[in-house]
Design a protein that fits this description.
Blueprint: E1 3-9, H1 15-24, E2 28-31, H2 32-40, H3 47-53, E3 58-59, E4 62-63, H4 65-74, H5 79-100, E5 105-109, E6 124-129, H6 132-141, H7 147-156, H8 160-166, E7 169-172, H9 176-196
Parallel strand pairs: 1-5, 1-6, 2-5, 6-7
Antiparallel strand pairs: 3-4
Organism: Donghicola tyrosinivorans
Function: Catalyzes the phosphorylation of the 3'-hydroxyl group of dephosphocoenzyme A to form coenzyme A.
Protein name: Dephospho-CoA kinase
């Protein structure tokens, strides 16, 4: 019987690094961002509907993220339409992973887990968390966005305090060693629960 664990956390809280720690302990892993890359890729499920909805966002048979960003920048009301197209396709990808999963623990790496109600499909939820200064420094150190873009993304995400309040497990990602110890403890606790069931 597979235990389905949702993994979420605000931008810059170490979610991807933490997901890899679960994988290193033998857990299966589904990544929402990777699923979006798949459906945006050449012949991906989102290519035709997005081309129809937002002309010009498909380049060389794949959804161009820069073109899509530019379109959304000029048409901010299009976000809802984009989500209405993309979310069901991402859900199908996740359902296919779930149906094929044979691992004892499956990790679902979903940035907007609470925001889109997906926690209802999970047996438990783990949240990565770190202090705001560290979070901001990590994101800006990537060099992929400026402070204004960071604040814009953060504003679309549920506040860290609310995520922590709704989580079954909180993983403090202040250091790698601390995060690894917490992940190992969570995996042990879930596996012990499966043995006792």
């Amino acid at each position: 019987m597979t235990y389905h664990l949702g993994l979420t956390g605000s931008i810059g809280t170490g979610k991807s690094t933490t997901a890899q720690m679960f994988v290193d302990l033998g857990c299966a892993h589904w990544d929402a961002d990777a699923a979006v890359h798949r459906i945006y890729g050449v012949n991906g499920a989102a290519v035709a509907p997005l081309q129809a909805a937002f002309p010009g966002v498909v380049v060389d048979g794949a959804v161009s993220r820069p073109a899509l960003r530019a379109y959304l920048g000029e048409n901010p009301n299009a976000f809802r339409q984009l989500e209405a197209i993309v979310h069901p396709l991402v859900s199908q990808d996740r359902d296919a992973f779930r149906a094929a999963c044979t691992a004892d623990i499956a990790i679902y790496d979903i940035p907007l887990l609470f925001e889109n109600g997906t926690e209802a499909q999970m047996d438990g939820v783990a949240v990565t968390s770190v202090d705001p200064d560290t979070q901001r420094a990590r994101v800006l150190a990537r060099g992929t966005m400026d402070a204004a873009q960071f604040e814009q993304i953060k504003a679309r995400q549920m506040p860290d305090t609310e995520k922590r309040a709704r989580a079954d497990f909180i993983i403090e990602t202040d250091t790698l060693e601390h995060a690894q110890a917490q992940v190992a403890a969570i995996v042990d606790q879930i596996r012990q629960g499966q043995r006792d069931a």
